[in-house]
Design brief:
Elements (H helix, E strand, L loop, with lengths): L11 H12 L5 H5 L17 E5 L4 H15 L4 E7 L13 H19 L6 E6 L8 H15 L3 E5 L6 H17 L2 E5 L3 H4 L12 E5 L2 H11 L3 H4 L12 H4 L6 E6 L5
Helix pairs in contact: 3-4, 3-8, 4-8, 5-6
Length: 267
């Protein structure tokens, strides 16, 4: 998930500040738990019909929308999952997990996680775009997502937030926005890194656009089990001791609800 920290399309200063924000220690979950802000957010209902869920890297779709995806799949709904990269850039310099081996491992982890969530194997789409370089292929990603939306008859597209400060997340979000607009499909965006770099009432975040998707204890337990499948991300490698998703980071994504932004891309 921490494959890149410098969003494209920004000035050098912006890119440096984005990198520093993502690499910094971040906001602890206890700060979010004590915040009354999310009590103001309305709950939102997923519209009828097929849903297409996008991810920049294997694990984003589970962290941001896994509980809801599992609920929809259990109800017999069609949930298409489009994973744009294989996440091969998460452990730069590792000799134990060089990019080709890491890509295979992360694809296998995602397959296991989606099995846990009950997502139909025939509704999974891998685009194979190079990690950390989605912005270079943004138009092509948008065209391929548009095809999935049209072919599936989707009524909703769910994608990473375009303000997340991660270059791949933002590029996938922009591609989804273009594709959803072309097809006339509703777009929801889920934050991933925002919970790390933002603080309660942060003016950089359009809080008025936030909505909640509550999870039952069973749905949350299923999501937790799916998250545990991402072993390369939640445990250190012998030659790469930094954990990509330590417990404090995972806590942001294992609440009894999920969060999406509606109808906006920025403040």
């Amino acid at each position: 998930m921490r494959e890149s920290a410098a969003p494209a399309g920004r000035t050098g200063t912006d890119r440096r500040e984005a990198a520093e924000a993502i690499q910094a220690a971040g906001t602890e979950e206890r700060c979010w738990a004590a915040w009354a802000g999310w009590d103001k957010w309305d709950e939102v209902v997923v519209p009828d019909g097929p849903v297409v869920v996008l991810a920049a890297h294997p694990d984003d779709e589970v962290l941001g929308f896994g509980g809801t995806s599992g609920r929809l799949a259990a109800a017999g709904r069609q949930v298409h999952v489009v994973t744009v990269t294989d996440g091969e850039g998460s452990h730069p310099g590792s000799r134990l997990m060089p990019p080709p081996l890491l890509a295979r491992a992360r694809r296998a982890e995602l397959a296991e996680a989606l099995d846990v969530l009950g997502v139909d194997r025939g509704l999974r789409h891998r685009l194979g775009v190079a990690d950390m370089r989605v912005d270079e292929e943004e138009a092509d990603v948008g065209a391929r997502v548009e095809k999935v939306l049209r072919d599936s008859g989707a009524t909703l597209c769910v994608a990473p937030w375009t303000g997340d400060l991660h270059s791949d997340h933002e590029a996938v979000g922009r591609a989804a926005r273009a594709a959803a607009s072309a097809v006339g499909v509703e777009l929801w965006q889920y934050p991933v890194w925002m919970w790390h770099w933002a603080v309660p009432d942060d003016p950089r975040v359009p809080w008025h656009s936030m909505r909640r998707l509550p999870l039952t204890p069973e749905e949350l337990a299923r999501k937790q089990a799916a998250v545990r499948c991402f072993r390369t991300q939640i445990a250190p490698l012998d030659d790469h001791p930094a954990v990509i998703l330590p417990p404090g980071e995972l806590a942001h994504h294992l609440r009894p609800f999920e969060t999406v932004l509606l109808g906006t891309d920025s403040v």
